[in-house]
Amino acid sequence: MRKQVVEHLGQLDFLHGRENIVMLGPPGTGKTHLAIALGIRACLAGQRVAFATATEWVAKLGEAKRQGKLEAELRRLGFVPLIVVDESATSRLTPRPPT
Fold this sequence. Notes:
The protein has 99 residues and is mainly alpha-helical. The protein has helices at residues 3-10, 13-16, 31-44, 54-66, 70-77; strands at 49-53, 82-86. It has one domain (3-91): 3-Layer(aba) Sandwich (Rossmann fold).
């Protein structure tokens, strides 16, 4: 990714414009690292951030649906300016015990 693009994303204009970012590319190209960096940058700017793998989001929303709380969970997520859906389980920031 060009340095100019990364610097532009770091300004967080996409958050203020309520725009989506989709990062595509082969494994090992830095997509997760950039997503984490943008999340940290957003937090430092006082924004709320939610970060999970696609599998974790599906499980979380599926559980909310089973409990009859899907609408409430989607409403809550509507107030989170940056929601990151990462493609792989290797993106976890801290290890979790096996379940």
